[in-house]
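Hey, I'm writing a tutorial for new members on how sequence and structure tokens pair up, and I'd like a real worked example in the thread rather than a made-up one. If someone can provide the structure for the chain below, I'll link this post from the tutorial.
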Amino acid sequence: MIDQRIQNSKQILSVLAAKISTTLSGVERQKYFAKLLTRQPEDVQYKLTQAIECLLLSMESMNASDMDFGGTGCNGQVWFRINAHKKPILEFGSFSVNEMDLLLLNLLTPMQREEFWENGYLQFSYQIMSMGGGPLRFRATIYLEMDYIALSLRRIGSEVRPFKTLGLNKNIAKLMSMEYQRHGIILITGISGSGKSSTLDTIVDANNRHSQGHIVIIADPLEYIHVSQKCVVRQREVGRDVRSFKEGVDNALRQDPDIIVIGEVRNPKTVSAALEAADTGHKVFATLHTSSAVESIDRILGEVTPIEQSRVRDRLATLLTCVISQKLIPTEDGSLVLAKEILAMNPAVCSAIRNNNIEDIYQIIHQSQSEGMLTLEQDLARLCKKKVISKSTAMNYANNRRRLEELFEFGGKANGYPISLP
């Protein structure tokens, strides 16, 4: 049975959608819809907002991590990702593309609509009250698909998971703490949906609870909202509080920070800003969309011109502290488990970066478990050994299938040296 809030919205939407001229298309059509919405009484706009919020509350009750809605690709359905699988939720009924456009435009402020029409996409955060009475936050992206409006939305956890659940070696755990090391760059990397932001929030939370200092977070958009405890935590959203990541980092350098958190390194300017912040004695955390530690270093070097690469390699060899590359892997019981690759700087890694022998770093990680390093394949083998995931799943998520096959085949030995599976 369709929720009454959605039923109410469908009655309104069918009336409004019928008013659209078939000669209008693209942004012109959307602007007509926006004018139509602004002429509606507040209670009508509120009922439309309630329909979207009903979907968001359903995400919480169904433990869905993501929602897709709008455009032509959704076939008029609301899609949820539940335990890594995305599927349409038929109980919400179906919507026409005009109805979906109206619902999504009603979600945006006039200023957000203008930004969306100018750029063709919009990233923003959204918050409602959960069924339990606390705040429920979402990260949303609205974009165009064949001239219609589409939404991809991710639910942000209401609680930060405990630091110990990251399962980091004690040597690596120390590197995360401002008390142990007050400068350098730490990268948290992974593909979209790999839990990078959650890991970063866990690390920030641990420093906030146990260290005294000033943490500046620059994000696009802001996800989990940290409450200052032992640290003053400043949170600035790109597009609302600051124009770009680089500007946010440059500003932060004049705000007496101890830790600077960069939500995502996207371009050469942000790379340069992160290096400068670490070079001036600050501890910098940042995320990258890469699937391995080696790829992360390649990506940073690839963001600068060939003439600058030698200088950036030297700075990176000096400033980089640690890289954690992670994936969320489906388990045998249908949930998700974190698998990670960990690179920590030592003389061998520094030398490989300076001499542009990046391809040697995987082997260094492979042989350095005593220092807390770990390849993704070693972690996948560990999870298989504990029967958390299947061998076929491990192979499917491995970056280096040959190395994982060797771990399985030789039962703890590969290439003549012992491999422990923690």
